[in-house]
Design a protein that fits this description.
- This protein folds into two domains: 6-32, no CATH class; 48-140, Ribosomal Protein S8, Chain: A, domain 1 (2-Layer Sandwich).
- It has five helices and four strands.
- The protein has helices spanning 6-14, 19-29, 47-54, 68-84, 105-116, and strands at 59-62, 89-93, 120-125, 135-140.
- It has a four-stranded mixed beta sheet, with helices on one face.
- It is globular and about 50 Å long.
Length: 141
């Protein structure tokens, strides 16, 4: 199967072929995944993704009460251990930041860490029963 180059995508766009589908197909064919993409716009990637979304996490880290620096160190060890142990899904409990002055510090720390971590994949907030916006789940690549 011939892989398209990016020029082909631009030509398809100019000729009225669905931009979203053309770009998605190009990314998939070239094994490029964007963890920042809007998850609602990306079709399910099969049974494995659905299984992970519905599964319990392999490990949970609670960083309540830690400073930003302490949380970063804890996250670093947590993700390293998860990669070493071949975990697939993690939960990080950071709280909603209701007691923070201004914006929720630990939530932003977790988000920054996930963006920088080379083996952190797709992520999102937990269901309300598991902490809602006070906890984040992450798939490990």
């Amino acid at each position: 199967m011939k892989k398209n180059d990016f020029g082909d995508i631009l030509n398809k766009w100019e000729n009225g072929i669905s931009q979203k589908n053309a770009m998605y197909n190009w990314l998939q064919n070239n094994k490029i995944y964007d963890k920042d993409a809007n998850i609602a716009e990306i079709p399910l990637r099969g049974k494995n993704r659905r299984r992970l979304l519905n599964s319990k996490p392999d490990a949970i880290l609670d960083i309540h009460g830690l400073s930003e620096a302490g949380a970063w160190l804890s996250l670093d060890k947590f993700f390293s251990d998860a990669k070493y142990n071949s975990y697939e899904k993690l939960r990080i409990i950071h709280g909603k930041g209701n007691r923070s002055q201004g914006e929720p510090v630990l939530l932003h720390t977790v988000r920054k860490y996930i963006e920088k971590c080379p083996f952190a994949g797709e992520s999102g907030y937990e269901k309300a029963a598991n902490g809602g916006t006070g906890a984040t789940w992450v798939f490990i690549k």
